[in-house]
Amino acid sequence: AGHGTWTGPTGDDYQGEYKRDKRNGVGCYKFAQGASGATYEGDFKDGKPHGTGVYTFRSGKKTMDQYRAGEEMSSSTYDEAKAADLVHRSRSAAGIAREASEKAQSVLDSCKAYAKDIMKMFP
């Protein structure tokens, strides 16, 4: 296990984590041929893309992809993926704020009831 680099016979290049002499963990794979000079930065397992990664094409276009054992499971443009993540985070933040507001209201109601009970003790 550790970090290393590799350059293939066609000029492909990998820099990243290795485990048992295979790409495992986070790394960057640059294609010299075939994928038009694309770069994949992301997760690897057993030498194959596995998990989340970002492809950057020579044109500058980026896609965010999900892989399982080297097979692409889903793909979206990088901007779409960032937007979906922001929507998810904003919904989560709104839910947390709503829950905090409900708890605060519950505490306030309890305090008001307690204050009324105390006031009854002093006619």
UniProtKB/TrEMBL annotation:
SMART domains: MORN. The keyword Transmembrane helix does not apply. It holds the Pfam family MORN. The keyword Magnesium does not apply. InterPro entries: MORN (IPR003409). Gene3D superfamilies: Histone H3 K4-specific methyltransferase SET7/9 N-terminal domain. Keywords: Repeat. This is MORN repeat-containing protein 5. It comes from Hemiselmis andersenii.
